[in-house]
Automatic annotation (TrEMBL):
Keyword Manganese on entry: no
Keyword 4Fe-4S assigned: yes
Annotated keywords: 4Fe-4S, Iron, Iron-sulfur, Metal-binding, S-adenosyl-L-methionine
Pfam families per UniProt: Radical_SAM (PF04055)
Domain Radical SAM core: 15-222
GO MF annotation list: 4 iron, 4 sulfur cluster binding; catalytic activity; metal ion binding
Identification of the protein by name: Ribonucleoside-triphosphate reductase
SUPFAM superfamilies documented for this protein: Radical SAM enzymes (SSF102114)
Organism of this sequence: Thiobacillus denitrificans
Cofactor annotation: [4Fe-4S] cluster
PROSITE patterns: RADICAL_SAM (PS51918)
Length: 230
């Protein structure tokens, strides 16, 4: 199956830390996170999709100029065409990064041997996932996805977007301790940003109890690598 692409960023220095990468935004996501900043990528089909052959043609022109290609979304693992797309990109000589919520663990496991780095979103304590995603059973899927990434040995960071209406500070601290106990070595907490968010209540009610940097000071010692993205 051909990968459905909802957008393409020709050059990014932030989507894969330390790498010059193009970002392929995969169309479609089965979850409905209220703070999503790419809501146009949620439907299975988009209004302005880029044909996969055009993406490949662009990447051929960037051989030797880019370090890698990041598959982002949406949710890349929601598409059956992801594995073949990654194979084609790797055949062009690019390293491969992946942004995922871990929601399709079996497909995630299938593509991990082709992946050089994963940015894995862990959205909440696993028992509380439906509060964020709006989907029953999403926490079990996310937990399985995390286990696949940890078992793979692939370089990765785990990150959590923190909105005060969805995650209290105590919950973030508890989640961080849980992730450290599971073997997560690199963790990022990042502030909610209103850009693209279509939930008016979340945009208007984003006042924190205390700065994320203050909470980050409590968590840094749990991980080999830790940062706060404000």
């Amino acid at each position: 199956m051909t990968l459905r692409v909802g957008g393409l960023t020709p050059l990014s220095t932030t989507d894969w830390p330390g790498m010059l990468a193009a970002v392929v935004f995969c169309q479609g996501c089965p979850w409905r996170c209220g703070y999503c900043h790419n809501p146009g990528l949620i439907p299975a089909r988009g209004d302005n999709e880029t044909p996969w052959e055009e993406v490949l043609a662009f990447l051929r022109r960037r051989q030797g100029l880019l370090d890698g290609v990041v598959f982002s979304g949406g949710e890349p693992t929601a598409q059956a065409g992801l594995l073949d797309a990654m194979r084609e990109v790797r055949a062009l000589g690019f390293k491969i990064g992946l942004h995922s919520g871990g929601m399709v663990p079996q497909r995630l496991a299938a593509v991990l041997p082709l992946v050089d780095w994963v940015g894995l979103d862990v959205k909440a304590p696993f028992a509380d996932y439906p509060r964020v995603t709006g989907v029953a059973g999403s926490g079990e899927r996310a937990h399985a996805g995390l286990l696949e990434v940890l078992a793979s040995g692939v370089a990765h960071e785990v990150r959590t977007t923190v909105h005060p209406a969805l995650l209290a500070d105590a919950e973030v601290v508890g989640l961080a301790h849980d992730l450290a106990a599971r073997g997560v070595k690199h963790y990022v907490i990042q502030a909610f940003r209103s850009q693209g968010c279509q939930d008016a209540a979340l945009c208007q009610n984003a006042t924190r109890e205390r700065p994320l940097q203050d909470m980050g000071g409590e968590l840094a010692g749990l991980f080999g690598g830790f940062s706060v993205r404000a």
